[in-house]
């Protein structure tokens, strides 16, 4: 069975088809559309657009998206966010596929969300789990959570790994030379729009402990400008005495080169998967991260995993990375793992979901 472009309606709302916004789901949408186009399929796209609207503008944009969905006659509707699946359902569309990127709204509140927003996200996701014909998840642990904790039928959940569209080069040998303890080392933490949930406080503790062993070490924190008020006095004191720096934004075309200059990338996050980690891995920098949520699915036997609050584990890992043989093993393993997340494998998984659902729907109509 062949799939034509207008068979597939991709509901990107409330996200946009861009890679440089810093939002992972924006990038997911862009990679999905690129992969489809590269394989001769041009889906119909309904997206938010570049404007990040206030509440009433958001409602207006949602109304416009509803109108666009109503006018379409696709054979399948793929929502890259649970909200899109509800919009398709209310428009009485059939064959709804929804990508569930994580289960954070179902698990509990994190500081990046206000209570009203968090409750609405949780309700939207709960409804989406019921009305979607197929749920696409990136990792086995996400599927396990949906099946075991939320009673979603296993047959309705399909695992399709993310596609990584980075320029991934085989690591150079000089990237895993042994490092002297008296050499100036730089640690990197990228907090994005939620530095607290991504482990800022733990990063500071790790930095303090490691600097007791390696005095000539500095910390770089990259965080969006709107989150600077969350960076506590402890961070400010480090900046004043030259031990740390705070950066607001790294352009997309410069980020891999920027990351490649660091000794290690720290990510003791409570949020699980982040595209930031993949960018660090592709830059040939060892990643030390927490083993929370789906982190094990893509970092186990690749980067270094620690319990989220195990300070000794993080410190020991940094000290071990001073050895060339340890750095070589970690960097090589990270490179090998990235190869498993190609955009071709991603597209094959998505196409199989599309074809199976359309085929089953066609056969059901014939039976009737």
Shape: globular
- Which runs of at least 5 residues are low in confidence (pLDDT < 50)? none
Mean pLDDT: 87
Q: Largest sheet, described in full?
A: 6 strands, parallel
Number of helices: 14
Reading the helices and strands in chain order gives EHEHEHEHHEHEEHEHEHEHEHEHHH
Structural class: alpha/beta
End-to-end span in angstroms?
20 Å
Helix percentage range: 40-55%
- Placed side by side, the strands forming the largest sheet appear as 2-1-3-4-5-6
Strand content: 5-15%
Count of DSSP strands: 12
Rg computed from alpha carbons, rounded to a whole number of angstroms:
22 Å
Short description:
The protein contains 14 helices and 12 strands. It has 368 residues and is α/β, with parallel strands linked by helices.
Describe the structure in your own words.
With 368 residues, the chain is of the alpha/beta class. Helix content is 44%, strand content 14%. The chain has 14 helices and 12 strands. The strands form 2 sheets. A 6-stranded parallel sheet has the order 2-1-3-4-5-6, with helices on both faces. The chain has a 6-stranded parallel sheet with strand order 9-8-7-10-11-12, sandwiched between helices. Helix 3 links the parallel strand 3 and strand 4. Helix 1 packs across helix 14, helix 3 (82-90) crosses helix 5 (115-131) and helix 7 (200-213) packs across helix 12. The radius of gyration is 22 Å and the shape is globular.
């Amino acid at each position: 069975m062949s799939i034509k472009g207008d068979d597939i309606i991709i509901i990107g709302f409330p996200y946009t088809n861009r890679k440089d916004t810093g939002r992972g789901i924006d990038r997911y949408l862009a990679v999905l559309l690129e992969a489809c186009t590269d394989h001769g399929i041009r889906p119909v796209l309904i997206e938010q657009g570049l404007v990040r609207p206030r509440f009433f503008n958001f409602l207006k944009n949602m109304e416009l998206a509803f109108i666009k969905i109503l006018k379409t006659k696709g054979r399948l509707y793929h929502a890259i966010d649970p909200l899109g699946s509800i919009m398709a359902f209310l428009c009485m569309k059939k064959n709804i596929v929804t990508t569930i990127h994580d289960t954070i709204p179902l698990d509990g509140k994190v500081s990046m969300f206000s209570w009203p927003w968090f409750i609405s996200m949780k309700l939207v996701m709960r409804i989406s789990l019921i009305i979607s014909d197929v749920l696409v998840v990136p990792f086995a642990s996400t599927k396990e959570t949906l099946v075991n904790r939320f009673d979603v039928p296993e047959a309705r959940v399909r695992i399709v790994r993310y596609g990584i569209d980075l320029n991934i080069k085989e690591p150079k040998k000089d990237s895993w030379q042994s490092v002297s303890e008296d050499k100036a080392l730089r640690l990197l933490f990228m907090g994005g729009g939620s530095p607290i949930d991504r482990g800022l406080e733990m990063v500071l503790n790790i930095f303090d402990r490691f600097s007791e062993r390696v005095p000539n070490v500095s910390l770089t924190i990259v965080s969006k400008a709107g989150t600077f008020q969350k960076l506590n006095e402890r961070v400010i004191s480090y900046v004043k005495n030259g031990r740390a720096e705070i950066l607001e934004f790294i352009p997309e075309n410069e980020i891999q080169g920027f990351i490649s200059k660091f000794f290690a990338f720290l990510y003791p996050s409570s949020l699980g998967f982040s595209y930031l980690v993949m960018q660090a891995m592709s830059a040939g920098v060892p990643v030390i991260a927490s083993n929370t949520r789906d982190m094990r699915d893509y970092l186990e036997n690749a980067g270094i995993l620690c319990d989220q609050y195990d300070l000794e584990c993080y410190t020991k890992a940094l000290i071990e990375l001073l050895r060339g043989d340890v750095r070589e093993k970690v960097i090589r393993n990270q490179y090998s793992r990235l190869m498993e997340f190609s955009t071709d494998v991603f597209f094959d998984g998505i196409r199989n979901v599309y074809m199976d659902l359309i085929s089953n729907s066609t056969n059901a109509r014939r039976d009737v």
